[in-house]
Amino acid sequence: MAPGVQLEKEQCMGLFQTILVTLVFLPLLMVASHNFLQNFTAAVPRHWCYIPVGDNDTTEVTGDLLKIYVPMDDNQEPDRCLRFSTPQWQLLAPNGTSTNATEPCLDGWVYDRSVFNSTIITEWHLVCGQQDLKDFAQSIYMAGVLVGALVYGGLADRLGRRALLLWSLLLVGVMGTGAAFAPNLVAYCAFRFLSGTGTAGFILNSISLTMEWMPSQSWTMVATVLTCSLTLGQLVLAGLAYAIRDWRQLQLASSAPFFLFFLYSWWIPESARWLIVKHRPEMALRNLRRVAWINGEKLDGEGISLETLKLEMQQKKESLGPSRHSALELFQTAPMRGITCCLMLAWFSNSFSFYHLALDLQRFGGISIFLVQLIFGAADVPFRMLVAVAANRLGRRLTQAACLFLGGLFILASIPVPQDMEVLLIALTVLGKGLFSSSSSCSYLYTTELYPTVIRQTGLGVTNMMARLGAVAAPMVQMTQAFVSFLPLLLFGAVPITAGILVNCLPETLGVPLADTMKQMEDRARKKRSKKEELKKEARGTKKTKF
User: Fold this and answer.
1) What digits encode the pLDDT tens for the residues 205-234?
2) Alpha-carbon gap, residue 442 to 447, rounded angstroms
3) Which of 2, 223, 279, 440 is deepest in the core (most CB within 10 A)?
């Protein structure tokens, strides 16, 4: 009996599995805080040029006197980046007019602190000519997530899921805390980059490690619960940001809990599946017995023993192939190449469009930024719950394809909607974002089931890397709006629609046991192709019979 089949026979949803899901759920809850943190720590408040007057130039000009020094825009708000070259005293008269002589804000800016006490924008003056640095800082974080997805995915297949999970938690705690004390923007971006690598490493290894300890009938439920934590984390972030209006304190509050997560995660055992594949049966058996003891069961009778594990390992030695697997093996054979390319596009398009919708909450200027974050987070929960039902009833493939296709359609539907119709725009955004959240839940489950154990983390790392590449590309594509106003929305809608169509080329995994070796996965692909060929022959025979 193959190791995966034997493990599947022994595994059940017991106390250990419940505790494991709970322990992983809590840090995943806080990961969302880091992903969307700059919605608040990099919020751009109202601002205008600082006008130094009075003794030692320390008196701040406010109220009606401000219009003497700063021109007003169409909404009668102070211009954000210009001031008059000379005071326009005539504007104090009812019908006074001003000259057009203006200059940049040479003495800095004054910020409206009614919503936020401080942000990285107010601290390092990332406005006017420096405003692009805000998006640059977010892209740096996403670049860190991208690098972490690629590096830690491959390392986990070599060093184990548990080791990389612990390292990732510690990295997020240390680097996130460092960002809270960053003296300048360069240091802040460096800390955020390294923190991003840690968040990617934790997401990948926590979900994979948890799924490998779960019975197959619980995969959909567990994957939904874990990915729901990323959605509920947006609600936590909205609450934290509402209570903590200083960016350094908010950054620290989002990072410090990871030290606690690091400490208690030492309790989590290494995946028995990975240990068996890596020829470490003694430790695998020890972990299995520990889990069985926690669940109140025993590994005896016809269950797993050291002898049966060694025998199975010897029988499977040739099919397991080399002990180390590189990302290039994801493209070596036709079945693996097809699966990897489709999954890469699905992950890229999902993240590409999701982060376009989830970031830059200030575009809905007439609604509180905290309320928008709350709405966006709360609306995702029912979508993630529905995807669990759909994945079990309709299958992984159809669910994944439908979420991507419909999400893209909602983005395209928003193109003709005027900007002043904020309620309709928010409704379309919520629907699209909810579908992409559902697609993300399905992606983790589907990818985990498609790749064999020997290269599962490498596959997750490569596909997750594509997701982060999509997150990095999203703000860059948004910049094309300066040339063609509807081009960004057209791309954000068309890319996931294309991915949704191509996902139908993937095999269905509903009710299929996890593959442990490359050979098992390729055998399944061959069987699927042979079945298709038989159906085609039958169809041709039917046509000939009719004639």
Assistant:
1) 888 888 878 777 777 778 778 877 877 888
2) 8
3) 223
Please, are residues 121 and 45 in contact by the beta-carbon 8 Å criterion?
yes
Residue type, position 413, single letter: A
Q: Any idea of the CA torsion for 299, 304, 307, 308, to the nearest 10 degrees? A: 160
Specify whether the CB–CB gap between 180 and 248 falls below 8 A.
Answer: yes
DSSP sequence for 344-390: HHHHHHHHHHHHHHHS-GGGSTTS-HHHHHHHHHHHHHHHHHHHHHH
pTM of the full structure: 0.76
Total count of residues recorded for the chain: 547
d(CA 28, CA 30): 5
Give the bridge partners for 53, in sequence order: 59
For 305-328, letters b (16+ CB in 10 Å) and e give eeebbeebbeebeeebeeeebebe
Tell me the C-alpha distance between 111 and 108, whole Å: 10
Distance from C-alpha of 210 to C-alpha of 363, rounded to nearest angstrom: 38
Q: What is the pLDDT of residues 363-397, one digit of tens each?
A: 776 678 888 888 888 888 888 888 878 888 888 89
Cα 433 to the center of its chain, rounded Å: 12
**Tokens linked to 170:** 């510690």
Do the Cβ atoms of 279 and 323 come closer than 8 Å? yes
